[in-house]
Amino acid sequence: MNGLHLTADLYDCANQALLRDADALMALCRSAVAEAGLQAVAERWHPFPPGPEGPGGLTGVILLAESHLAIHTWPERAAVTLDVYVCNFGRDNSAAAEQLLARLQQAFAPARQQLERLQRGRAWSA
C-alpha cells in the first residue's frame, strides 16, 4: 500500500470544452494513462444533465493496475478536480503519477490550481 496520492483542484480552466465533452475527456484520460506507462484495467464514466447553472459536468474513474485516476468536472465553474493514486508495490510508480497529473493539468490550462501530495503507507514500509 506504499504509494503516492496526488490531488489537483483546477480553477478557471481555459479548455472549457473538455469539461463537458465526454468523448474528448475519456480519450484524453486514456491517452494520458498510457503515455505515463500505467495500465488501465477498467473505467466508468457518468455525464450529469444540464442544470439551472449551466451544462452538466462529468465524473469518471479509470482503475489502474497501480491504483486509480478519478476526475470530476464543473463546466458552470470552469473547474475540475483530479485524483491520481499509485501504489509502489513491486516498483516505484511516483514519476508516472506525476507525469499523468501534469499531462491533465496541461490539457485543462487552469489559471489557478491547488495541488496536494500525500505519501501513503509509510508505516507499512517501516
From TrEMBL:
GO MF terms listed in the record are: adenosylmethionine decarboxylase activity
- Any Gene Ontology CC annotation: cytosol
Record's keyword terms, sorted: Autocatalytic cleavage, Decarboxylase, Lyase, Polyamine biosynthesis, Pyruvate, S-adenosyl-L-methionine, Schiff base, Spermidine biosynthesis, Zymogen
Record-linked InterPro entries: AdoMetDC_C, AdoMetDC_fam_prok, AdoMetDC_N, S-AdoMet_deCO2ase_core, S-AdoMet_deCOase_pro-enz
- Cofactors, names only: pyruvate
GO BP, one example? Answer: spermidine biosynthetic process
The record's section on SUPFAM superfamilies has: S-adenosylmethionine decarboxylase
The record's annotation in Gene3D superfamilies points to: 3.30.160.750, S-adenosylmethionine decarboxylase domain
Cited NCBIfam families? SAM_DCase_Bsu
Stated name of the protein? S-adenosylmethionine decarboxylase
Q: Which organism is it from?
A: Chitinimonas taiwanensis DSM 18899
